[in-house]
Design goal:
412 residues, globular, alpha+beta, 22% helix, 8 helices
Length: 412
């Protein structure tokens, strides 16, 4: 071959290679579309997506939205909780684990910007619901569960339902899945204190990772992108996931004290970029208001609701050591109308959980309606002996109108 012919040959090779990439991408898109057609729209999942998930805002990917309508979430729930499958809430799945709220599943999925040619690693299979959602969007899903009974159950269910591009493994997710690496993206559905290095190593250059990081009850979503071999982290919003167990838990430096439960950020003096309060998660229709008439400090939180405004915070508690809690806070209301023809609605709600994360006691606190000026709410609550953790809700989840709240404190 002459020197003059070599440039032409290289050009032809480049054209052929590029064409092969396009064909592969087209084939990937066709495979994903064909796989999605196998799963018809589930009417209850469609109603959940349109009436509960989309009104919260933030979901914009039409493919993710479409897939959320096709996954029969009740199949991934324990029989006792299937009646709640299409509510936007976490539910116990046994072995001290939970299935994430549908909005969180959709949110995390969107952050990965999934493509039909992607190979995705999931840490924390749980029920298999998140893997099922991903399977209708990408080429392959590799998912790891440390709790063997859950991992085996999810494997059987995913196969039975026809999610044939999901590969399961029982093991410590801290170590990732080295034999199948590298991955285009990684999704972590349990919370370590910091990113495990094996996951960094197994993420391809330019890949994306969504992961909840932080202390046990003070976690934040981070979107991580791998650039020049290291992770560049983008802080997103506060959240609450079950902890990553195994090696990640053994390395945890800050651990909660269940004998000293506390509320973080109950004065609402710090707001995040989206206007939600620091220290709380899953905020809906809320805003921090700076005002001189705040009962405590210089600001309070405002809930503007059409039957869906709330904030949540979890904390550890030992029911054997602490038998009673006193919850106190201040509220002010404007045109509050309870839903479901009730005369009043609760402005707070406290749920206790046992060591398997099953709900064992609950109760509304601070009943209210109509319009009223600032008033204190103080209530003493019995703590179940089996309680290991609790989640406090403040807001108007079942009423319309406006509620202001401030100075949330628990004592014991």
């Amino acid at each position: 071959m002459s020197e003059q012919q070599k440039p032409l040959l290289l050009f032809l090779i480049a054209i052929i290679s590029f064409s092969g990439i396009l064909i592969a991408e087209q084939t990937g898109e066709e495979l994903v579309k064909a796989r999605r057609v196998k799963f018809p729209v589930v009417e209850k999942a469609k109603n959940m997506t349109e009436n509960l998930l989309l009104p919260q805002g933030g979901l914009t990917n039409p493919d993710v939205i479409d897939v959320m309508k096709r996954i029969p979430r009740q199949k991934f729930c324990l029989p006792v909780y299937q009646q709640f499958a299409y509510q936007d809430s976490a539910l116990p799945i046994g072995n001290a684990q939970t299935i994430s709220p549908p909005y969180i599943v959709a949110f995390m999925t969107e952050q990965l910007q999934p493509k039909p040619t992607d190979r995705v690693l999931e840490i924390g299979t749980g029920s298999g619901y998140q893997a099922a959602v991903l399977s209708l969007l990408v080429k392959e899903v590799y998912t790891i569960e440390i709790v063997e009974p859950l991992g085996k159950r999810a494997e059987q269910l995913l196969k039975k339902l026809g999610f044939d591009n999901v590969y399961t493994k029982v093991g410590d997710g801290y170590k990732g899945w080295e034999d199948a690496a590298p991955f285009d993206s990684i999704i972590v559905t349990c919370s370590p204190e910091k990113v495990p290095q094996p996951l960094v190593d197994q993420l391809r250059e330019g890949g994306r990772m969504i992961i909840p990081l932080g202390e046990r009850y003070q976690q934040y979503f981070y979107l991580c992108k791998k650039e020049n071999g290291v992770l560049v982290k983008e802080h997103l919003t506060q959240t609450l996931f079950v902890p990553m167990t195994g090696q990640a838990e053994a390395e945890r430096q800050v651990k909660p004290d269940p004998a000293k439960p506390q509320i973080i950020g109950g004065g609402f003096e710090e707001a995040r970029e989206d206007g939600s309060p620091s220290g709380w998660h899953y905020a809906r229709n809320v805003k921090i208001i700076s005002a001189k008439d705040a009962p405590e400090g210089k600001s309070f939180i405002r809930f503007t609701s059409n039957n869906d405004a709330q904030i949540l915070q979890g904390f550890a508690i030992d029911g054997k050591a602490i038998r009673k809690l006193t919850l106190s806070y201040s509220i002010r209301g404007k045109d509050i109308v309870p839903a479901q023809r009730r005369f009043q609605t609760n402005s707070a709600y406290l749920m206790f959980y046992d060591d398997d994360r099953n709900p064992i006691s609950e109760g509304p606190i601070g009943m209210c309606s109509g319009s009223f000026s600032w008033q204190p709410v103080v209530q003493t609550i019995s703590v179940p002996e089996k309680a290991k953790e609790a989640v406090l809700m403040i807001g108007l989840p079942a009423a319309s109108g406006q509620l202001d709240a401030d100075n949330v404190i628990i004592t014991y």
